[in-house]
Design brief:
binds zinc ion; alpha+beta; 26% helix; two-stranded antiparallel sheet; globular; 173 residues; Peptide Deformylase
């Protein structure tokens, strides 16, 4: 297993639609899954999508066990391949960050309930439902696979805040 290097905004791989995985059981995909889980556990994050480690595949891993006070059935590492959102409901505004935009946090409006279907790492069909943080995570990760980042979900006012922040950061880099 290996800890993978994270791609950072504005790397173009983060802004393109990722490819569906057709060979879930292949050694290269299984290794990628192991490495993504190890990478996630080395980071202060709860979810990681393949484009964030430079692989344009429809795959994300997540682990909600570290979240205090959240009631979640999703403890331990989970893998979701070729996810499709089935249902979104409600609305919730909460602060969000992204491992590909380190240092930036802002309030993002998301559905407060989300269900999705996909496949686990053995190729078995799975269905997941989540509220609150889990729902937010599912939407954030599926967005990654569609080339969308949290900054694209901000109000125009907050987008301006982001672009000013980013410009400033580039100056100091
Ligand atoms: Zn992210």
């Amino acid at each position: 297993m290996a800890i993978l290097e994270l791609t950072q905004y504005p790397n173009p791989i983060l802004l393109q639609k990722a490819k569906p995985i057709t060979d879930i059981e292949s050694a290269s995909i299984q290794t990628l899954i192991d490495d993504m889980i190890e990478t996630l556990h080395s980071l202060p994050g709860i979810g990681l999508a393949a484009p964030q480690v430079g692989q344009s595949f429809r795959l994300f891993v997540f682990n909600l066990s570290a979240q205090e006070g959240e009631i979640t059935p999703y403890k331990g590492p989970h893998v979701v391949i070729n996810p499709e959102i089935l249902k979104l409901d409600g609305e919730n505004l909460s602060d969000e960050g992204c491992l590909s935009i380190t240092g930036f946090r802002e309030g993002v409006k998301r559905a407060s309930f989300a269900s999705l279907k996909g496949f686990d790492r053995t190729g078995k069909a799975i269905e997941l439902t989540g509220e609150g943080l889990a729902a937010r995570l599912f939407q954030h990760e599926v967005d990654h696979l569609n080339g969308l980042l949290m900054i694209h979900r901000l109000s125009s006012l907050k987008k301006d805040v982001f672009y000013r922040w980013f410009k400033k950061r580039q100056h100091h880099a």
